[in-house]
Amino acid sequence: MSSGYGSLEEDYFFTAKTSFFGKPKDKHLVKDVEKEVEKKPTVLTQEEIKQKVEEYNGKVKTCFGMRLSPDGSYTGFVKVHIKLRRPVTVPAGIRPQSIYDVLKEVNPAEITDKRTSFYLPLDADKQLHISSRTTVSEVIVGLLKKFMVIDNPQKFALFYQSKQDGKAVLQRLKECEYPLLIRLLAGPETDSSSFVLKENETGEVEWGAFSVPELQNFLRILEKEEQERVQQVKQRYVKFRQKLEEALKVGGKQG
């Protein structure tokens, strides 16, 4: 499968883009640095929130400003860049969700039992309209619904990307943090700071987050990679043996 598109029922997710075994990264080519930063949550007074919202809207050059509510909360937009290296699972053979479906909170997974998987474009992004009370976990769930992805939200993590000394720094956000507050404090400029959705890689695989068909698919991938690696080793030794035999023949003639 070179197209990166496949069905859970028929094909493997074994492509040039993905492998069951992780590939070692060249440290010199890694531009992003992921950091776990322990910070105390920022708490703003009502007056500070009002001032920050006014300053933010004064810098906005588009229609994506923030709106302050009488209860002290505020609403606005956050853009999230999608940078997923693995395929995502979606319902197969159904139309995209309509406004009616979104308002009625129709779950695509309940419409059909058929599943298919594909790669989201690496340059994809999505604007979400959220409130100051919307958490990181809710943003992840909202993004998955936008793309009709039915994978477990625990498979994904939201990062805040900023620039320090000319380098891109990725900070993993906790599920209880508030993205709109982060955007308010950072300002509307998305070139210097942005949100990124990536795979949730904590060093250990959360196997419980995968469905039975996905686990079965991983076994097929493992078997396929095992067979290919065995063939590669055999071919390498066959070539080595041929060279040795050729060298012996040449040596025998010279002797």
TrEMBL record:
Residues 126-202 form the Ras-associating domain. InterPro entries: RA_dom, RASSF1-6, RASSF5_RA, SARAH_dom, Ubiquitin-like_domsf. It is found in: Cytoplasm, Cytoskeleton. GO terms for biological process: apoptotic process; signal transduction. Pfam families: Nore1-SARAH, RA. PROSITE patterns: RA (PS50200), SARAH (PS50951). SMART domains: RA (SM00314). One of its GO terms (cellular component) is microtubule. GO terms for molecular function: zinc ion binding. Keywords: Apoptosis, Coiled coil, Cytoplasm, Cytoskeleton, Metal-binding, Microtubule, Phosphoprotein, Zinc, Zinc-finger. Residues 204-251 form the SARAH domain. Residues 223-250 form a coiled coil. Interacts directly with activated HRAS; a RASSF5-STK4/MST1 complex probably associates with activated HRAS. Interacts with KRAS. Probably interacts with Ras-like GTPases RRAS, MRAS, RAP1B, RAP2A and RALA. Interacts with RRAS2. Can self-associate. Interacts with RSSF1 isoform A. The RSSF1 isoform A-RSSF5 heterodimer probably mediates the association of RSSF1 with HRAS. Isoform 2 interacts with activated RAP1A and ITGAL/LFA-1. Binds STK4/MST1, inhibiting STK4/MST1 autoactivation. This is Ras association domain-containing protein 5. It comes from Callorhinchus milii (Ghost shark).
